[in-house]
Amino acid sequence: MLIPGVRRTWAPRGETPIHHHRYRHDRISVISGVSVSPTRRRFGLYYQLHRHNIHQTEACAFIRQLLRHLRGHVIVIWDNGNIHKGDPVRDLGRAFPRLRLERFPPYAPELNPDEGVWTISKRTLANARPDDIDELDRQLTRVLETLRESPRLLRACITHSDLPPSLP
Predict the structure, then answer these.
(1) Can you give the residue range of the structural domain that contains 152?
(2) Are 25 and 1 within 8 A, CB to CB?
């Protein structure tokens, strides 16, 4: 959102930092996923940004994008959000035999490696003050591209999740 996430910062003693921003609720919705190769040697980050709320159509388009980029069998493990359920998602699973759709247990963010991506992203963007949605888009893309290019950070997202080591 254009309303900045605020984190602790430094200021001269006795001077409270003041964070000026425009009070606008414009937002960017993002769907993303961390990929792990079967040998656990390659990690990837895939994402799509939208200027509207994400629905089943966008979730299915994202999975199709993954299938274009990833070879072999693809196992997607995602949360129980409404956009991950329904006929379009079931039809997608039936249309691609190499795709397997699995769900995390209800409310289990500690299992989801993608939560690490958003922890890092929010920490990086904290105290930023984009003036408009285009600037927010650029900042968010820059952060996600930096993550995408860092196998070390992506590996950390996987290893810091509570997924069993044999799963991803």
Answers:
(1) 29-113+130-159
(2) yes
The CATH number of whichever domain residue 137 belongs to comes to: 3.30.420.10
pLDDT on residue 38: 81
The total number of structural domains that make up the chain: 1
Residue type present at position 136: L
Tell me whether residue 1 is in a domain: no
- Mention every residue, 6+ apart, whose C-beta is less than 8 A from residue 87: none
Cβ within 8 Å of residue 11, ≥6 positions away: 17
Mean pLDDT of 103-122: 89
Quote the CA–CA distance of 66 and 15 in Å, as a whole number. Answer: 49
pLDDT score recorded for residue 34: 93
Rounded-to-integer distance, Cα 168 and Cα 111, Å: 11
Quote the CA–CA distance of 29 and 24 in Å, as a whole number: 15
The model carries a pTM of 0.81
